Please model this.
Amino acid sequence: MSKNSARVTHSYKTVGSCNLRLDIYRFADKGPQPAIVWLHGGGLITGSRRMLPAKQALTYLNGGFVLVSVDYRLAPETKVRDILNDVVGAYDWILERCEIIGIEDDRIALVGHSAGAYLALLAAVRVSPKPKAVVSFYGYGDISGEWANNPSPYYCQQGLLTREEAQMSIGKKPISSSSTRSRFKFYIYCRQQGIWGREIIGDDLDNLQNLRSLYCPVFSITSSYPPAMLLHGDQDVDVPVSQTLFLGKKLSSVGVPCQQIILHGYGHAFDVERKGLNDPVVSRAFDAVIDFLIQNV
Model:
């Protein structure tokens, strides 16, 4: 981060003993600006607001945005219904404090990575007023399909974990942040067993109509949905690129402006793996994201 940028942490919600926080990044010498609400990935099971890469944060700030990185409760201790409520609550908290934070009215975009992209896509259906734009990095809009509810060929190639090993990495009390390593065994186990959807959704998984209407944003997209940019690597073995292609097709079918960037030969988390933004292909994709946000927010 640059010397004239600042990060301020706030608590936006408390649930029992679980305190949910967000970080606000901005240049100290700037007036009101549009904002980006940034949501981390981690399979809804792991991660935190501090996963935001410093170089990406600075790129957003240099693009003329205030940046808000948000924690939300994690599964399986908390299910998606309540996780989404956290994201909506953070969004509302920010809207109510636009003037104090230094945000221009409701000029807000949602940007997410993987599970964070899923939450961004889903929140854009629920919040009011809607965000001006949504950016999905290797996200998904449909968790009712086989990819989310059958054993993953990729994760099954890794050493199979026992239920006991997986359970050791999680607890019983709600939490809102963790290191990736500390809980990732549980995610791997869920993907190996084909129970990830069950562990993050709960009993609502058994009702396909409710599952799609409540938890699959691709089935709730209408012409009022905000403009979207979707980025995905075509060699993604965690979230299939077909998820982005399906989303793009649905958005276009209802007349929502949508840009897609498919990175050939790239996998999941392409913006942080390999060379990150030092990779010319990734850097150009990120430049396109900034241009999209400037044009739409």
About this structure: The mean pLDDT is 95. The CA atoms of residues 166 and 225 lie 38 Å apart.
